[in-house]
Structures are given as C-alpha cells and as structure tokens.
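Dear colleagues,

As part of the handover before I leave the project, I'm documenting each prediction I ran so the next person doesn't have to rerun anything. This entry is a single chain, and its sequence is reproduced below.
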Amino acid sequence: MAYGMSGRVFHAPFIALHPGFKLKAVVERHEKKAAADHPGIISYNNVDELLNDDEIELIIVNTPGSTHFELATKALEAGKHVLIEKPIAVTSAETKALFDLGRTVGKHVMVYQNRRWDSDFVSVKKVIDSGRLGELIEVHFRFDRYKTTLSPKLFKESKSVPANGLVYDLGPHLLDQAISLFGKPLSYERTTGIYRENSEVTDYFNYHLKYPHQLNVYLTSCLLIAQPIPSFVVHGTLGSFIKDRVDTQEAQLDNSIWPDAPGYGIEPAGEEGILVTIGVDNQKIKEKVASEKGNYMGLFEAVYHTIRNNALYPITEEHIAWQMEMLKG
C-alpha cells in the first residue's frame, strides 16, 4: 500500500482498527510519513521489498489506475491477496487476466468500491428496498464538483496516460452504485465532454442505462458544477425520494477523525432525504427520512471474511466486468 492521500484516509485507519488485520507496512519512496500516524509501521522503499515480506497476506494496490494491472499481477504472483482501488485495470482483458490469475494462484482479487457504504447511498438503497416508491421509473445519481484548475499531478491530466479523466475517476463509483442496485443494464448510452480550459481529459460524462420494465437510470458527473443539484433522485409509481450527497466520512478521515470516534459517518442534522408519496385524494405527503450511518469498515469486514472464510466478496467479478465494459464506452 502506498501512503498518499488514499492510503492515509481510505485504507490505513480501517486496517489499523479492524481486529482481524495488522497494518504491517507501506511503500514510501521519498518522505516517510506513515510512522507518525502508525508507530511501529515498516516503510519500505519499493514494491519488491513489500512483496518479499512473507508475513504480509494482503496487498492494497492504491497507485494510479494505469499501474494497477502490473502491480496487482506482481502481488498475486508473490502469493498475496489483493484489494485494488478503482478502476481495477485499463481494459476488460486486463481485468479478466487478474481474476484468472487469482484463481490460478489461489488468491482473492477484490476491488475497492467504498461508495456502497456511503451514508447517502445506503439511505437511498433502504428507501428503494422498502417498496414505498412502487415500481421505479427514473433514477438519477450525480457526483459533481467544481474544480477549474488542472491537477498538478500530470498523470491525472495527460491523455497519453490510460485510465484517465473523470470517467475512470468517478465513473466507477456511480456505475458500481447502479450495478449494486439494479444489475447489468439491457443497454446504455454514454456522452462525454471536455470543458476545463487546456484540459486533455474528460471532465463531464453522462450514462443512460436502460433496464427491464422501462426503468431508466442516469449517471452524471462534472467538474464544473458551481451549484450542485440533489445527487440522488428516484421516481417511482408511488412516490419520489430526493437526497443530497453529504456523506461525511472522507472529510472526517482527512481530519484524523477515525471510524471509532463518536459521530463518525453520521450526517449533520438537516441533511435528511425527502420522501414524497401520494395519499388519499391525491394529496402529497412529504416526510424527512433520517440518514443511515456511513461506514467504510463494512468493506474491510467483507475483505476479512472473503480471505479467512472464503465468503463471496460483495463486489463480484461479474459486477466489475460489467463496469469495465461501460467505462470503455
């Protein structure tokens, strides 16, 4: 595991706290920062040193997307299980090769899709599963930001680097959320655009996924949305549910608020979703729906049981294959 923002925020706190794991080591090529947060941790200078540590069973691959296939392959060949940041690889062929290699060497290949455990998404899923919306007609999921400045990390902004741009950055989150709820679409259409000045990579996309029973699902993301609209809008034959994207976990973790802290993963008051149903005499009934608690530890709990008990990891190989097909357009 690298100890940049991803390692520090999204991985290390959970590995350190989960009783089934031991946070043994990271790779830090230059500055050695991990020990300040995790005393006693080993900071290896390169990946080969990490892979040669016989005590390590699980490798987290959280480097740039274009490097995932090579590093995950090396980890599997070294006899390690792998948890790979999204996107798992650049192509569907690489994705299949990783899962095939995992079967060959008897190790698990798992993809890190933490947004299934966001408080807002869990709340939306609960309302959908309750049946209170009736048969679904139209679903909108959005993930918007406002960032006019290009990233100083050139690998994120160069069209010569594969698995780049907003489609590969936030696309896997939205696609995975849709797949986890509705499965594989019957068909889909994709629109992309580049709007930031001097940008070489996609900074806008929209997917229209078509499902059985005339269900239409729209997934949208843009880096130039000054005033975001609700990120979750679900319409059914019996009602509608509207919810903002307000999961607090990333901000809390970035401010060293760990998953065992009081209030972790709990949305602020006033951020409840709005459920609108139709009562007698066609009167609208509006009610606030309290948000569920967000908890990325659920993903690491799934990783643990997959490795120790051979449980089925919830983000399945099939789910990832469908996602990769749509990422390539």
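The mean pLDDT is 96. The radius of gyration is 20 Å.

All the best with the project,
I.
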